[in-house]
Each structure stands twice: as structure tokens, then as C-alpha cells.
Amino acid sequence: MNEAERNILGLHLPTDPRWVNLAAISLEDILTDHAYCEQKAATSCISLIQRYPDKIELVNGLSPIVTEEWGHFRLVLQELRKRNLQLGKQRKDEYVNKLLQFEIKGGREEDRLLDKLLICALIEARSCERFKRLSEGLHDDYLRNFYRRFMESEAGHYVTFIELAETYIDKEKVRKRWQEWLVYEADIIKNLEPRGDRMH
Ligand SMILES: [Fe+2]
Ligand SMILES: [Fe+2]
User: Which terminus has fewer CB within 10 Å in the chain: N or C?
Assistant: First the structure.
């Protein structure tokens, strides 16, 4: 992936600084939300594999990511257990629900595949950005490192989703639709109620 291609990945809007009001956040809530993000990332990859079993690069590219995301879930669970914290209930994910409203549901199969891959890419990009904030803002050295490792891993994932889109769909079309998604996503971020304890 060259520099110009990398630039298309840029999120338009940083997370609201109030999101990382770290003093006010319960670690239990952060880790619980994070655990479900990892679980959802694994299940999204599984769904894509189930939907497109004939797409060899997709199946081969996403299979190891399922393992990685599930490994991430287990790491987060381990942190909760270590600290005597509970894995709470999964809560409504307003960010992801809003993203899904923009997804093309009908029409050509190619367009639907493109949107599914770009949604995954966006979620990875946004997670990466938020893990970066946690890795910079948390006071606990161990947790800063913990989040730095997640940040690097999610960055790799979002590149994989974009590259998969470019494997199956014309690059110019991918670029154009990605730009539309970035605009839409920035709007979601702008209008989301800032919550200190949510991953999104
Ligand atoms: Fe992950
Ligand atoms: Fe990921």
C-alpha cells in the first residue's frame, strides 16, 4: 500500500476529547465494552466467511483475524479477572447501529460486499484511534502498553479490509465509497453523546 493509498484511510474527525475523560471512567466499563468490541470483530469476520465462501482471498485473509480477535477478547477477559472485575452485559452500540443505517442493503452484490468490508475497515480504524488515546492517556504503565499492542493490531486489520475491497472491486470505486463513508462516520462521531466509558 503506497502513501496515497494510505491517506484514504484517514478519519475525518478525532474522537471527542471528552471521550477520554479518563479520570471519570470505570475500568470495568472500558474493559467490558472493549471485550464486546473484540467479540463483534470476530463474529463479523465469521459472517463474511459464511457469506462469501467462494472468495478465496477473503476467506484466507479473514480466518487468521478471527483467531486474533478472539485472542484479544480473551486478553481483555483476563484483565477483568485479574482485577476482580466483572464482564458486564453487552450494551446497545449506537455507533455501529448508525453505521449500519448507511450500508447498501439491496442492489448489486459487489456494492454490498464493498460496504461490508468498508464498515469493518472503519470500525477497525476508529478502534485503533481510541486505543491510541488510551495508550497515551492512561496512568497505569501496564495498561498503556496493553492498549498500544491493540492499537498496532487493529491498524493491521483495517489495512487488510481495504486491501480485500481492492482485490474484488475497482480501486477508484473503493476510494470513492470510502470517502463517502468517512464523511458519514465523521457526522456520527460529531453527534454521538460523549460517553467516557464506551469504546465507540
Ligand atoms: Fe481486536
Ligand atoms: Fe481488529
Answer: N
Q: In which residue ranges of the chain is pLDDT below 70?
A: 1-9, 15-24, 193-200
pLDDT in tens, 161-196: 999 999 999 999 999 999 999 999 999 988 876 654
Give pLDDT, residue 168: 98
**Domain 98-192, CATH:** 1.20.1260.10
Q: Which ligand is nearest to the CA of 34?
A: 1
Return the ligand number nearest the Cα of 125. 2
pTM of this structure: 0.88
Cα 11 from Cα 17, distance rounded (Å): 15
For residue 69, how far is its CA from the centre of ligand 2 (angstroms)? 6
Could you tell me the distance, in angstroms and rounded to a whole number, from the CA of residue 38 to the centre of ligand 2? 7
- What cell was used for 45? 469476520
Ligand nearest to the CA of 160: 2
Locate cell 493491521: which residue? Answer: 156
